[in-house]
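Quick log. Single chain, no ligands specified.
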Amino acid sequence: MNAAEVAQRVATVRQRIVDSGGMHVSLVAVTKTFDESSWHAAREAGADGIGENYAQEIVAKAQEVPVELRPPVHFIGQLQSNKVKSLVGIVDVWQSVDRASIIDEIIRRSPNETARMYVQVNTTNELGKGGCEPDSVADLVAHATRIGAVVEGLMTVGPTDGDAVKTRMAFRLLRSMASDLGLHGLSMGMTNDLEIAVEEGSTLVRVGSAIFGSR
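-> predicted structure:
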């Protein structure tokens, strides 16, 4: 992996964020399917963290990258309870928490760690998509807080068809829910919709292909 090219692409993405009005938006470089060199390249390029979707990949890469050389690791894929044990101690931020059983398992497996998380919301009403229903968000946030998790905000994925109007509506809904709950973190926006996300108040974007190329 060409670290200099990754650094240039990270700079380009950050400029896109600034051009969209974002001055304090974190950039998580999505490294799924790329080898452990992507973690090093993201760190050297100044990304605020790396995003991974698959437990097995995270564990394999963590075995190759010493703790002191890892960027903060964000889990952004659909999470299964039986995978949590293998990820504790590697994942720094759980971004795809969408049900109480997952929250319970993370807390149970992390007795000596601060469990930082985002509650994922299905703001597009698409069947089979990760995220809790909007009317479940308040209860999940309250449950997570009650048992000791640190809920940093809400997370969502834009509509599969990429329609700009629907994308804006989905992101605006997430912002409204976060505001109602007194949460400041908004993880929304990827390569193709980060401008809309930033305009709608995103505080963290998750970008893969614009940094590492197509998979």
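The longest strand covers residues 150-155.
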